[in-house]
UniProtKB/TrEMBL annotation:
<dbReference type="GO" id="GO:0005576">
    <property type="term" value="C:extracellular region"/>
</dbReference>
<dbReference type="InterPro" id="IPR005490">
    <property type="entry name" value="LD_TPept_cat_dom"/>
</dbReference>
<keyword id="KW-0133">Cell shape</keyword>
<dbReference type="Pfam" id="PF17964">
    <property type="entry name" value="Big_10"/>
</dbReference>
<keyword id="KW-0012">Acyltransferase</keyword>
<keyword id="KW-0732">Signal</keyword>
<dbReference type="InterPro" id="IPR050979">
    <property type="entry name" value="LD-transpeptidase"/>
</dbReference>
<dbReference type="GO" id="GO:0016746">
    <property type="term" value="F:acyltransferase activity"/>
</dbReference>
<dbReference type="GO" id="GO:0008360">
    <property type="term" value="P:regulation of cell shape"/>
</dbReference>
<dbReference type="InterPro" id="IPR038063">
    <property type="entry name" value="Transpep_catalytic_dom"/>
</dbReference>
<dbReference type="GO" id="GO:0018104">
    <property type="term" value="P:peptidoglycan-protein cross-linking"/>
</dbReference>
<feature type="region of interest" description="Disordered">
    <location>
        <begin position="29"/>
        <end position="53"/>
    </location>
</feature>
<dbReference type="Pfam" id="PF03734">
    <property type="entry name" value="YkuD"/>
</dbReference>
<dbReference type="InterPro" id="IPR041280">
    <property type="entry name" value="Big_10"/>
</dbReference>
<protein>
    <submittedName>
        <fullName>L,D-transpeptidase catalytic domain</fullName>
    </submittedName>
</protein>
<keyword id="KW-0573">Peptidoglycan synthesis</keyword>
<dbReference type="GO" id="GO:0071555">
    <property type="term" value="P:cell wall organization"/>
</dbReference>
Length: 330
């Protein structure tokens, strides 16, 4: 089943849209000044009092910026998965030539360190991803030393501590119709599933196919309303119309893919792909997966011809490490 998007027109325009969508609303550029040439002396200068050459320095332009949002939430509110990104949104645009300076005041310190890098995805948003997954069961401290930016008068430094929980890595095989969930490296459960059936092509993309690639869980709802409105089908008399309340829905992309309880049709679970793009699971399996899910958990899907885009939700692991680092300003 697919939930309706918050903005229907945007989903229809997005060629990579999946059938699931919810009806309800997750070397630096130098700041040094240019040097001017020496000030010429007058011919009347005496030999015992030579005039020293003077330098004129242009003023450093300020960078006035604050943080509008940090994702995910703090260690006092949630635990996150080993794939989680740090998403920082500023209150105003940061010019390209000043981004390296801004990056230089953003620090990430982990109890169990791994290499990481920032990537700018817009003029207001920068994202931190690690080279390999975070080590589980640790704390990570993010600090933005905004007061160190030139001319950022009155800015307060900002910090947030994250808690990395259990390593949950799920592998969905759409050809074998199974989802195997590994917790801290050990197989915890194998769940029969049914993935996207295919057969609905929009703008050259089969939107009924589940996307193959490395997804991250982005949020979850105990009950999600899923409708056919993302297709433009709102007439209950239309054969393609549906509106269902689906339990145990865990979102894994922006284009509407979820792992959720199958709305009936249990005979297909573990046998064939019959969904509109989501991963349907048994009631027991879906509830268990919902219960253990943390934002930033890894869900690897394989076996379909439709590739997950790196910027579809939190799918940043679709980029190689070298590709990811190219988005940094440093």
């Amino acid at each position: 089943m697919k939930p309706a998007p918050r903005i229907l027109s945007a989903l229809l325009a997005f060629v990579t849209v999946t059938a699931c969508a919810t009806e309800s609303p997750p070397a630096p550029v130098s700041a040094a000044a240019a040097q001017a040439g020496p000030t010429p002396t007058t011919p009347a200068v005496t030999q015992d009092a030579p005039e020293a050459a003077a330098e004129e320095v242009s003023p450093v332009k300020p960078i006035k910026v604050r943080i509008a949002d940090i994702t995910p939430m703090s260690d006092k509110t949630e635990k996150v998965g080993v794939g989680f990104p740090i998403i920082v949104t500023f209150d105003r645009a940061v010019r390209t030539r000043r981004r390296a300076e801004v990056e230089s005041v953003l620090e990430v310190q982990a109890q169990k360190p791994v290499e990481g890098a920032w990537r700018w995805v817009s003029d207001r948003k920068v994202i931190y991803r690690t080279k390999t997954y975070w080590k589980p069961h640790q704390k990570v401290l993010f600090t933005a030393r905004l007061s160190d930016l030139p001319g950022n008068t009155g800015a307060k430094d900002v910090s947030r501590r994250f808690a990395v929980g259990t390593s949950n890595i799920s592998v969905v095989d759409t050809r074998r119709h199974t989802m195997k969930v590994y917790r801290d490296g050990k197989l915890a459960k194998s769940i029969p599933i049914s993935a996207g059936s295919g057969g609905m092509v929009r703008n050259g993309v089969d939107v009924y196919l589940t996307t193959s690639g490395t997804h991250l869980t982005m949020g979850k709802k105990a009950v999600e309303t899923m409708t056919s409105s993302w297709l433009g089908v709102t007439d209950p008399k239309d054969p393609l119309y549906y509106k269902l309340e689906i339990p145990w829905a865990v979102r894994i992309s922006d284009s509407g893919e979820y792992v959720h309880e199958s709305a009936g049709y249990y005979q297909f679970l573990g046998r064939s792909n019959q969904s509109h793009g989501c991963v349907r699971a048994t009631p027991e399996g879906a509830k268990w997966f919902y219960t253990i899910s943390q934002r930033g958990d890894v869900v690897k899907i394989k076996g379909t011809k439709r590739k997950l885009e790196w910027n579809n939700g939190w799918s940043y692991w679709q980029l190689s490490w070298n590709q990811w680092k190219k988005g940094s300003a440093r």
